[in-house]
Specification:
mainly beta; SHC Adaptor Protein; four-stranded antiparallel beta sheet; globular
């Protein structure tokens, strides 16, 4: 089971001089000081300046998930922790990605697919953006090692890729007023890059396919 989930909060800031963010435990609505989460120093937009002598960058809200990793499917990237689905990138990218870090802590830096396989069956720590009702988590750190950048595109995306929020807005708009996105998967194809699961105001389910620019390719009723 998940031992601890810590929310940094939307709009949290990581200081460049000391990339450590102090967080508060939100368990049972009890605010208790816990050890700082170590965040990798993120590249700042060149024009982003806070107060003089202290540059900061706003990052996504992160939660810490600690638990035994289990398989959620046949592919090496289909992993779960206590029922929370870990989003680790498109399967095609995972299968071909070179070594990116010793995520499974076995002392060997292996191709990414092998590192993810090595996580299964043991307890590990993930820092991720948990969303869609707590069912899915976009992974940013694995056992303290950076998996993807906090502020830039994911490693499987192009440098000019649009942000997730724009993708989510486009997917909901494609279905109509009152629609909500309940899942978003990176597909990594040449044309279809995102697949969103959307529910309209009447409860009907749709699959919305989008390209890298956030343009809708197709809308399919589930």
């Amino acid at each position: 089971m998940v031992a601890l989930r810590i929310s940094i909060g939307v709009g949290a800031a990581a200081a460049i001089g000391a990339a450590t963010v102090s967080v508060l435990s939100l368990l049972d609505h009890d605010e208790r000081a816990v050890a700082p989460i170590r965040l990798a120093t993120a590249a700042l937009p060149p024009d982003y300046v806070a107060d003089p002598g202290h540059e900061t960058v706003h990052v996504v809200a992160l939660d810490e998930l600690v638990g035994v990793v289990e398989r959620g499917g046949d592919d090496p990237d289909e992993l779960t922790v206590d029922g929370v689905e870990l989003h680790l990138g498109p399967t095609a990218w995972v299968m071909t990605s070179p070594p990116r870090g010793d995520f499974d802590r076995d002392g060997t830096n292996e191709p990414l697919r092998d590192e993810l396989v090595g996580l299964v069956g043991r307890q590990h720590r993930f820092e991720a953006h948990v969303r869609f009702g707590g069912e899915h988590a976009d992974v940013y750190f694995v056992n303290g090692l950076p998996y993807r950048d906090l502020t830039g595109p994911a490693p499987w995306q192009s440098s000019d890729a649009v942000g997730d929020e724009r993708i989510l807005a486009a997917a909901a708009a494609a279905v109509g007023e009152g629609a909500r996105v309940v899942d978003l998967e990176a597909e990594g194809g040449s044309r279809v890059v995102w697949e969103a699961e959307v529910i309209d105001r009447e409860g009907r389910e749709y699959e919305v396919l989008l390209d890298a620019a956030g343009e809708v390719v197709d809308v399919l009723m589930s």
